[in-house]
Each structure stands twice: as C-alpha cells, then as structure tokens.
Amino acid sequence: MSKNIKFLGLLLTLIIIFIILLKGLNVSKDYSNEKLKSQIDFSLNAKKLFSDEIINISDLFDKNSPSVVNIWASWCAPCREEHQFLMKLKDMNINIIGINYKDSPKNAKNFLSSLGNPYSEVITDNDGTKSIEFGAIGVPETFIISGKTNEIIKKYIGPLTNENLIEIKNLLKKNA
Amino acid sequence: MSNYLGNYSLYIALIASVYLIFKSYLDANSENKYLDKNIILITSIQTIMITVSFFSLVAAFVISDFSNETVFNNSHTLKPLFYKVSGTWGNHEGSLLLWLLVLSIFLFIFLLNSRSQDTKYKLLTILFQQIIISGFLVFILLTSNPFKTLYPIPSEGLGLNPILQDPALAIHPPILYLGYVGTSIIFSASLASMISGNIGDKWARHIKKWVLVSWVFLTIGILLGSIWAYYELGWGGFWFWDPVENVSLMPWFCLTALLHTVIVLQKRNSFKEWTIILSITTFSLSMSGTFLVRSGILNSIHTFANDPSRGLFILSFLFILILMSILIFFFNQNKISNAAKENFILSKETAILVNNWFMMFFLSVVLVGTIYPIFLEVLNGSKISVGPPFYHNLLIPFLIPFLIFMSFGPSLKWIKDKLKKFNYNILIIFFVSILISYVILTKTENSFLLSVPLIVLSIYLLLVTIKDFFVSRSSISQKISHFGFSLLITSILLNGLFSNEFNSNMKVGDERIFNEKVVKLKEVNVTDVDNYKSLKASFEVTNKNSSFALYPEVRIYQQPLTITSEADIKTTLFSDNFLVFNILKDDGYYNVRYQYKPLMIWIWISTIFIGFGGLLSVIRKNEQKY
Fold this sequence. Notes:
The complex is a heterodimer. Chain A is 41% helix and 20% strand. Chain A contains five helices and seven strands. Chain A has a seven-stranded mixed β-sheet with strand order 2-1-5-4-3-6-7. In chain A, β1 (45-48) and β2 (54-56) form a beta hairpin.
C-alpha cells in the first residue's frame, strides 16, 4: 500500500473519530436535559424480586402521574451511599420502582431488609438487559418517567444527592 | 492581590511561549551550532512565572481568600491546612494549573539534562513542548481560569468534597500528572528526533530515562489512586474498571510497551518506527485521558467537572496534536534508516515484541470498554453497559499465555537463542508450583477450570522470577520489576479467590459468627471533630485463639452535607480484615459489612516493587551494560 493511501486512511479515521467524539459531547449534555425524548418500551416482561411473579413492566407505572425508577445492586457501593436519600424520597410519599441490576436475589433481599426498602416494587434484571432498555450505563441511575407519554423526563447518573431530592420533588409536581 | 499576580504571570508565560515557538522554529531551520542563550533565559522566565502563578493559587487557598472563585468553590476556613493546600489541585482549574507547572518544569529539566544532544533536536523538542504548553495556557485562560474574582467577597467557602480529604488522594494527582506530563517530553522528543533524523541507540539511551521516569510516576500514581479507593471509598475493592481509572491504565500499558521497545532500540538499533508510534500513542492517550475526564463526556463517579466547552477545546487541541504528529511521521519516515536486520524467532527481540502484542491487546480491551459506549450512543442511540465482567472475561484468559511468555522471555538472548537441552530446574519449579496450587485450590470451594492454570502459572512465574535473582544475567532493576509483577498477579488472583464477606444489621452488644470468627459490636461514640461529626464504633473480632479490635467511623460533614464511611482495616501480612458500618434510621441498628481479604497488602507492596525496579534503573549508571 502506498504511503499516501495509508496517510489518507489514517486521516479519514481520525476525522471520523473526531466527529463522533464531538457529537458525543453534545449527547452527554442531553442527559441532564429535561426535554430528552426517549421512550421506554413498556411491553417488556420482568420478574418481581420478592414474589418471583412475572409481570408486564407497564403494570408498574401509574398512567396519570410520573414515576421514579431506580437501578441498583447490592454489590454497588454508591447505591449504599445513595440509599438514605431513597428512603427520604419514600418518606415524602414518592413512589419508587426498583430495578435490581445483575444481582443475586439473596443479596438483594438482604440489602433491603438491612437498610430498609424504599421501593414500592422491585423487579430483577439478572442479565442487565432491562436496564439497557432504560438507557442505563451503570449503577446507580435514577429516572423520572412520565406515565402519560412513557418518556424519560430526567435521568440521574450516579448516586442521588440532597439537592437532587428537591429537584425530583419539583419535577414530579410539575409533570403530575 | 494573589489573584492579579497569578493571572498576569500566566499571560507573561503565554507571551514567552509564543516567543519560544517562533524562535525555536527559526533557529531549527538555521544551521546554528549552539543553543541561543535567550532560549534558556526565556524558558527559565516562563517556568518561574508558572511557578509563581501556581503558588499564588496555593497562597489563596492557605489564607482562604474567598475573593477567588476557585477558592470559594473548593475551600472552607474550617479545613485542616494540609487539605487547604491539596485543595489547590483537587478541582478542575487548579489541577490544570498543576499540569502546566509540571509541563514547564519538565521542559526545563530536559534542557539541563540534554547538553550532549544535537542542537536542532533540542530546538525542535522545545518547539513541540511549547506548542503543548501554549495550548494549555490558552485553555486555562479562556475556559478555566483559576483566578476569577468574586465581588462581594463571600465570608465562607463552599468546602471541598470530603471524599477528597484523604492523604493518598492529596498526593495522587500530582504524582499521576508527573507520569502523564512526562509522556509529553517523550512525545516532543520523538517528533523532534524524527525530523532531525537522530533516532538510534544514542537517542534511545537518552530518552529511556524519561520513559522510565514517567513510567515510575504513572505506576505509583495508579497505585495511590487504588489505595485511595480501597481505604477511602470503603467499597472493599481496589480496582473498579471505572472509566477514570481506565484512563490512567491505558497510557500505562502503552508506556510499558514503549519501555521494552526502547531497550531493543538501544541494544539492536531496530524497532525505530514502532518506538515513535508508541511515543505518540502514549501521549495521545494521556491527553485523551484529560479530555475524557475533564469534558464530562464520560459518566463516572470520578468526574467532578462537567463543561462541554472545555471538552470541545481539549478535543480540538488533542486532534491538532495528533494530526501534527501523523503529518510529521509520514513526511519524515524516509529519514529513518532501517538497515535490514535478520530477526530470529527465538530471541529477546521477539520476546519483547510478544510483550508489546499483549500490551496492545490489554490496551485495546480497556480502550474499547471505555469509549465504545460513547461511540455506540452517537452512532445509533443505543446504550450498552460495560462493567467488570467485560474486562474480566476478556483479560483474564489471555493472562495464561502472557504468564507463559513472561516466564521465559526475559532469559532469552539477543539476536538468536538456541533451544536448550531439557532444563530440569524448570521442570522442578513447575511441579513445585503445581503442588502449591493444589494445596491452595483444595482450600477453596469455588474452583472454576480457568483458575487452575492461572494459579499454577502465576505461582510458577513467581518462582521463576525468584530463581532469576540468582542465575539470570539480566539487570537487577528488571528482576525486581518482573518479580513485583508476578507477585502482583499472584496476590490479585489469590485475593479474588479467597475473599469473602458478610453483611448484617447489628446494634450495640450484638454478636455475629462468620468463618469461625466472632464479630461483636461493643459501643458507638459520638464526638464533634474539626469540620464534621464523628460516630466511632468499636468492634471486637475474636478468632480461635486471638482477638483484635476494629474502629470504623461514620463522618457527617456539614459543608456540603455529606456522609462518608471510614472503614477500619486490620492489616496483617496474610490478610486484611475490613469493617465498615452505616447508619440506619431506626432503633439503634447499624448496617455492618465485614470483609476478609487475603494478601491485600501484597498488592500494594508488589506494585511498589514494580515501580522501585524502574526507579533503580533511572538511578543506576552501569545499567547500560545489560
């Protein structure tokens, strides 16, 4: 292969990588954007953690008001740190649906029985596919999902903080 | 006051940088025999100005000058002095200033250290290094000026993230930066040598020092980050495959490959192009690391800054540098004289090449795992999750051939080696390691087929590297580093195989029995310390014939309101006993997590061995003989 072709090939690859990363910069901005238009596929089936019963995801959501979905795992240390804030949300009477990510049911149940259970319902996600459906890239992540349009209103990557709680409360009020 | 001083010193440094770029470019094209005195003078001025700027920021942190926005956002009067100082680089703006400081100091040391080198080569190195310096200066002044002022002056700062108040973390960034920035010298020097055409054994000897220095700092920097995660985050692990951790590991793989390749260049005067490519790649990876961490394109618990305009700048700058190096590489390739040399399969060159393949493979896995999610999301909007299982499944099986090659590669001769007659020593060592592994593996229940060859080979490699101390002809620094590496792999494998834990809710007075140990919660004391409230628990762990106490702590910080768990760890030569607890809301119960982790301390010790070997090689003069 001649030197020029090698050079042009390399140059082209570089330009493509540059453009992708440039786009990536803007994409990641959208995570915190409240207008993020991404719909959840509600036809999925999932197993409940406590009863082993298989249900349709759409049954978990209230059609008229937004819900909070939290992806967690017992092995995930930030989840442990975040847990106190989820309990606070529960105390504010906010409905939280838990997705237990790549976890053993035994450890997950232990985690909840020892730290308290903030979730109205927990579904298991052994292979991580359900979390991917929600667009999660790790644990913990928290979503606010509109019951009417199935859209993600807001997504939090990483553990929630005290400031997030107020924001979540306001968002829920606004979209109710 | 310090704000103005710091700010204007940066502008002066930028002017110096522009002057040096033009001056070194013009001089490099003339046939001057000696380096112009002005160049050394201006470089010194620039280094002094950046140092002044850095220390005026340190001063602002020490005296808690809240008219400075960076200080206001990241410091607090109640913070201990040590953490006020380390707060200087615990934030985005300050850490970039530190990058810049190290960049200019390294260039200065380079100038002092390369008197015997060709003038044109030196000028070109200055040119490339100044391009990098000016890029960082503009970046700092435009997007992340640490000397922005606030008016009216706030009376109190917002505090530093308490998770960052840890001695290991306070020195972790500077050490890691020394490693990263060291690669910039290698980058500039290899481009300069490409143009001036002096790549060869002499240049290899000269640049090897810089490769070693960067490598040692990078190794120790990664070690400190890992120690911080283990002790401070209280997760009970030392490596999480977090994108920010990966970003420091990638240049390490590349630099390790370069370290070995440079030796071939020095001894055999071959692998010239490959050395240059590795130099360019190593620095590009260090820069990409800065881009990935600082732009917020990655989502990680480690990313503290989040600003796309900064990302855009670093991205463009990074690509200009890469483009420049590719242009230089392609248009000067013909200057590299490659005397055709015969390469034999069984030789040290081949062994090092194999090492390079493995390093490139490990690098690609980590690179794909780190940035592929970003690519995929841009290309078709789908999101994938990459976690420890991905890395473990891809890396661990390949450790088997890697360990085999590493056990005999270093003892091969240069140019051509013969297949020796059957070596009974090796056979004995191999059977001994099978025996040891058998004893070890019978003690664990979880025996996957994969762990058998891994344990056997890692112990085999460990024994071989110990044997090499007595018989092999290679240098002592190499023996130490290789021994450290085999110890590291063995410790990590055994640690992974034998770690276990329990998790339970306890109140004062409760006892739990775990692996023939009794864990008892004796009391919890609440006290007010400096800038946080402390809950200190006292546990007693009783073994068959001994007992020890553990005092984990929960800290409640007010500025900002954060709760951190300080694990208490009882370390012995054989194992770590790790205990961490959390507050539960109701009825005086605490959530307690107890972990037994064997050989933890050997993971740190072996990494220190690895780094120490490198350090020894920098210091020792007669190292060249081997």
